[in-house]
Specification:
The structure holds 3 protein chains of 3 kinds. By secondary structure, chain B is mainly alpha-helical. Chain B has helices at residues 7-51, 80-85, 88-97, 106-113, 120-130, 147-153, 170-182, 191-195, 208-239, 244-258, 261-275, 283-308, 311-319, 324-352, 356-360, 381-389, 394-425; strands at residues 56-65, 138-144, 185-189. The longest helix of chain B is centred in the N-terminal third of the chain and has 45 residues, at 7-51. Chain C is an alpha/beta fold. Chain C is built from 10 helices and 10 strands. In chain C, helix 7 links the parallel strand 7 and strand 8 (201-205). Chain C is globular, with a radius of gyration of 18 Å. Classes of the chains: A mainly alpha, B mainly alpha, C alpha/beta.
């Protein structure tokens, strides 16, 4: 990539992108911690996650401030404009990813990692896929890689499938005569599953942002989404 | 950063030197200007010192009693014919000699008569024709003295040399002293100088003929040079395609501006006088020759003025669909006109001071009549100066200085006008 | 190409003496739309603009090859008079260049030389109408007889626009019309350009890319005498096709 004649312009854009990347790193970390807090039933870890999310929120604000400054002072166009817009959208997505990690950590108290093993195994598989996708996505953002971005987009369907399976199992486990605590635990597991599913969606968003940043195109091709269908099926099966 | 000094110190050090150099240069320039001004003052000063006395003319009072039969015809009317036959000169001399009744020797009487102007008789005749009531009674009239007396009273005649080397003899000096004592000799404003043409006698010679001759020539010059020059300038700036021919023309115009003026005189002599057989000594021909000489100057000035009009004005006109000619005439010429006029005035001033070409076409003539038309024989201011400065009489010398003063005055006026025009109409773009 | 293209430029090469200024330019300029020409200094955009009303004819040693048609008529054919062409294609220059005459005479000059008004009433109408269109009438209606050079830079430029539209041209060419104006005056002229584009085809050369982005529907990018690309302004400023365009508009070392 050729450089701007005004080198401080380059520096500002690099700084903005660097901040997005480091925010991505924090989000990865907070997700790892959030899942760990659930699997190890660590209240301390959960609190740490909730605290770290506030920090991520602050970084989002910083990125917005920087981006607005760039827009106002440099009037970026073409690839520069797309880079700045991409950075802002990245920040939004990463902030939401952080929120979801926080939500998972909040569920930690209600979940006993030794119960509902079959659900937890599925959740961990979803987590592994989502986390790996997120890591790849952030790498693909750091050094733009369209191929990786396309792969991430295509792989999201797998996470959606897993979510549907989890949903089906949880719905089966939910019996009207369950004790309230158990129902609450099952609901919490479902929330975690939903957050993991959203994590996949947002990672796909990140992949799309990368594609937009590099090509200017907004990917319009509908992704395969299993969630709605699965819910309908399970609703029908209950009737 | 040498010698361990900071940049500021080094700069401060060199600054002093640079300031000194600047001051030195400033004084050199000032000195040059002062030198120029000094010489100008010496030149103008010496001319003024020599010339201002010509503003005055010495006159002497004589008592005359003109008998009516010398003026009026049988019917009692004033008659040119009768007056023509009168010996006015003798009358004047006789009247003057009455002041010195004890001078009887013929030779002495002639010397005495020489003290008044040989044109004194004409002066009396002129006074009579203006005012016939002085006829037939004892009247006191002021008539011009001879140029020698005039110069003596102005202190320009050396008297402390042996008599035979002097223009005035001992007795003549005595008579003048006598007149001075009686108080009937005085200096008055030299009206004649501004109202008549040349004369053999300095006291009767004037510059009006030359001024009118110059003026007519200038009118002709202006009328010929300005339109041709402006048209040539427009053509060269707007229509001529650059190329060998245009370059050739341009080089020649610049050359023409540098050609010695006498060459134009020779050209005028050969073409206008010998080939076209136009009248000699005519201000018409003088003006034509001067216009040839001024043409390149005005062309160059006009081109510069046209070029100084920003091309954006021309572009604006052209972009609206004006033709080149419309753009030039409607917009560029009006804006260039102050510059063109300035150039013209400077060219005219140059032409006004020109002598050599006029000499070649015979405008160097002795004329006692003031020219009244384009083809009348005439002379011009600088030529008049040339003629007078060549004459023997001291009185002509002071007159030629005064004429130079007048010429310089004209030139200053014209150049001042050019500067004022430029100031007034100068546009900032 | 398209039916509504007002000006068609085909294989245009321009030379100044031995130096070539434009190489094989092909461009369609659409009717009643603003097309902006951008590019670095010396890229040939002004030269190209001046081809459209043959103002290049005035420049010594300038030679234009190729075809430029307006409404299908070749403007460079032998029987076409540039004077007539310039009445159809008006021009506004970089520096406001009102004639040092009254406001009225400035605007009336074009109609006068072309004999567009039968009498003074008609002439007055044309002048007032043009000033109205140029959005200047309210500002100058009480001083039509005052010198146009006494107006502010922005007003002078709008006088020049009024002067151009007084001959009712079909196309108006603008050569960096706002480069000598302050932002407020620039905004006024840009607003005016927007209004004028309803009735006139406008081609503008500008060094301000923001201006090109703000005012024009289509943008053409010139580089070293080549037309690099011409597309919707929106496209050029978000996702240009050519690397050279991208580098230029983002301010990168080419």
């Amino acid at each position: 990539m050729s450089e701007h004649i005004v080198s401080s312009y380059d520096e500002e854009i690099k700084e903005l992108q660097g901040q997005v990347v480091s925010m991505g790193g924090l989000v990865e970390k907070i997700w790892i911690d959030a899942i760990e807090s659930v699997t190890t039933a660590s209240d301390e870890m959960a609190l740490k996650v909730i605290d770290a999310d506030k920090h991520i929120d602050n970084i989002e604000l910083e990125i917005y401030t920087k981006a607005m400054r760039l827009l106002a002072l440099r009037s970026p166009v073409a690839s520069d404009l797309r880079t700045v817009v991409a950075a802002m959208r990245m920040a939004t997505n990463l902030e939401r990813l952080g929120d979801h990690a926080k939500n998972v950590a909040r569920r930690e108290k209600l979940i006993n990692p030794d119960e509902h093993k079959e659900v937890i195994i599925l959740l961990l598989r979803m987590y592994e896929m989502s986390l790996s996708a997120l890591q790849q996505a952030i790498d693909a953002y750091r050094s733009p890689n369209l191929e990786t971005a396309e792969t991430i987009r295509a792989n999201d369907a797998g996470i959606d499938e897993l979510f549907n399976s989890t949903l089906a199992i949880v719905l089966k486990l939910m019996e009207p005569n369950n004790p309230p605590l158990q129902t609450e635990a099952l609901a919490s597991l479902l929330f975690v599953a939903k957050s993991l599913e959203r994590m996949g969606d947002m990672t796909t968003n990140i992949a799309e942002i990368i594609i937009f940043q590099e090509t200017g195109a907004f990917p319009t091709e509908e992704r395969v989404r299993g969630g709605q269908v699965g819910l309908m099926e399970s609703q029908q099966s209950r009737q | 950063m040498g010698n361990g000094k900071t940049n500021t110190e080094l700069i401060a050090k060199s600054l002093e030197k640079r300031h000194r150099r600047q001051t030195r240069l400033k004084y050199y320039g000032l000195f040059s200007i002062l030198l120029g001004i000094t010489f100008l003052i010496i030149l103008l000063g010496s001319i003024t010192l020599n010339g201002y006395t010509a503003l005055q003319q010495t006159v002497v009072q004589i008592s005359v009693n003109i008998s009516p039969d010398k003026v009026f015809d049988d019917n009692g009317n004033i008659s040119e014919e009768v007056m023509y036959n009168t010996n006015w000169d003798g009358l004047a001399k006789k009247a003057f000699r009455q002041e010195f009744p004890d001078v009887v020797d013929r030779k002495e009487k002639r010397k005495l008569s020489d003290l008044i102007s040989s044109n004194a008789g004409y002066d009396i005749k002129w006074m009579v024709s203006q005012n016939p009531s002085i006829v037939g009674k004892e009247t006191k009239l002021w008539v011009k003295t001879s140029d020698d007396v005039d110069q003596l009273l102005k202190g320009r005649l050396t008297v402390n040399v042996p008599e035979e080397q002097r223009r005035l003899s001992n007795s003549q000096l005595k008579w003048v002293k006598n007149l001075t004592d009686k108080g009937i000799i005085k200096k008055q404003f030299n009206t004649v100088f501004f109202t008549s043409a040349d004369s053999r006698e300095p006291e009767s010679s004037g510059i009006l003929g030359a001024i009118i001759g110059s003026a007519i020539a200038m009118v002709v010059t202006m009328a010929l040079a300005l339109p041709f020059a402006v048209m040539a300038a427009i053509y060269l700036e707007y229509f001529a395609k650059p190329g060998k021919w245009t370059d050739f023309i341009e080089v020649n115009i610049n050359n023409l501006a540098a050609v010695p003026s006498i060459v134009f005189g020779l050209l005028g002599l050969a073409v206008f006088l010998n080939f076209f057989e136009l009248p000699r000594s005519a201000p018409l021909v003088g003006g034509m020759v001067l216009s040839l000489m001024t043409l390149p100057t005005i062309i160059i000035a006009s081109r510069a003025a046209i070029r100084a009009v920003p091309s954006s004005i021309r572009d604006a006109a052209l972009s609206l669909g004006a033709s080149k000619m419309q753009a030039a005439v409607d917009h560029v010429l009006p804006l260039a006109s102050p510059g063109i006029l300035t150039g013209t005035i400077i060219g005219m001033a140059q032409a006004l001071g020109e002598t050599a070409p006029l000499i070649m076409i015979g405008m160097v003539v002795f004329l006692v009549d003031i020219p009244t038309g384009f083809t009348d024989a005439a002379t011009a201011l600088p030529v008049q100066i040339y003629i007078w400065s060549d004459s023997a009489e001291r009185a002509f010398y002071e007159r030629s200085s005064l004429a130079i003063m007048i010429l310089v005055l004209f030139l200053i006026t014209m150049n001042l006008l050019a500067v004022l025009l430029r100031k007034k109409f100068e546009k900032k773009w | 190409m398209t039916i509504d293209s007002k000006i068609q430029v085909r294989n245009v090469n321009v030379y100044y003496g031995n130096a070539q200024a434009l190489y094989d330019v092909n461009l369609d300029i659409k009717s009643k739309e603003i097309t902006s020409l951008i590019g670095p200094s010396g890229c040939g955009k002004s030269t190209f603009l001046r081809c459209l009303n043959r103002m290049n004819d005035v420049i010594e040693g300038c030679r234009v090859e190729g075809n430029i048609t307006i409404d299908g008529e070749n403007i460079y054919s032998k029987d076409k008079d540039p004077v007539l062409l310039r009445a159809r294609v008006g021009m506004v220059f970089q520096k406001p260049n009102p004639f040092p005459k009254s406001i009225f005479d400035n605007v009336a000059y074009g109609p006068r030389i072309h004999g567009l008004a039968a009498n003074t009433t008609e002439l007055r109408e044309i002048v007032e109408n043009s000033l109205e269109q140029a959005g200047l009438m309210d500002e100058v209606k009480d001083r039509l007889n005052e010198s146009a050079t006494g107006l502010s830079g922005g007003q002078q430029q709008r006088i020049c626009i009024a002067r151009a539209i007084a001959v009712s041209p079909e196309v108006i060419l603008m050569d960096e019309p706002c480069s000598a104006l302050d932002p407020i005056a620039t905004a006024r002229v840009e607003e005016l350009m927007g209004n004028l584009s309803i009735n006139y085809t406008i081609v503008i050369v500008t060094h301000s890319m923001q201006q090109a982005a703000r005012v024009s529907t289509r943008t053409a990018f010139f580089h070293l005498g080549h037309l690099v690309e011409c597309d919707e302004t929106n496209k050029i400023f978000t996702t240009p096709n050519d690397k050279r365009t991208e580098d230029y508009i983002t301010g990168k070392v080419g």
